[in-house]
Structure formats: structure tokens, C-alpha cells
Amino acid sequence: MIVEMRIYHCAPGRLPALQERFTNTTLGFFEKYGIEQIGFWTTLIGPSNHALTYLLKWESLAEREAKWNAFQADQEWIAKRAASEAEKAIVERIENHFLTPTAFSKLR
């Protein structure tokens, strides 16, 4: 198992728009492409409260590449993402980490 941690750093005041996009659009595409989420979090205490962090579960990097690339190439997704940012950009930058569990990890 591989866990992908993605951190979306939003433009000030745009976190609600990102949360709305995930709720009403992105999660449907994740389901369509078999992208399995572990969970989503916002920052309670930290350097910025304009971030959304989430974890995705993959069996392999090959699975991730196939499913993520199909999702990213979906023309309906591209159009809906663009529409959500028509007036103002939502995400300033994205951090992406691929994590593997240790032998002593409860989640493997």
C-alpha cells in the first residue's frame, strides 16, 4: 500500500470554494475513477489555515498513475474545475508526498 498526501494551499479566503468543489464535484470524479480517499483535513493550528490536506490510498504507483491520469484528462472534470475558478484562482500551490508504511505501522 502507498498513501499519497496532498496539501492544497489556497489563496486567502478561497478554502471554502475548494471545499465546495470537493464536496460537489471532485469526490464524484474520484468515485468514477476508483480513487480511494482515507480522509480530508483542514489546519486547526499551524502556519496557515488556508490549506486542505488529504490522503489517498493506492496499491501501487502504477495504479496511481493510471487512475490519476485518467481523472486529470477527463474533459468534464477539466471544464468543471475551470468553471470553479472562472472568477478567481482557488489553489496557489500543491504539495504532494508518497508515503509507505513502516513494519510497525497500524495502517499497512
From TrEMBL:
Q: Which Pfam families match?
A: NIPSNAP
Q: Which residues form the signal peptide?
A: none
Matching InterPro entries, A to Z?
Dimeric_a/b-barrel, NIPSNAP
- Domain named NIPSNAP is located at 3-106
Mind telling me what this protein is named? NIPSNAP domain-containing protein
Species assigned in the record: Caballeronia glathei
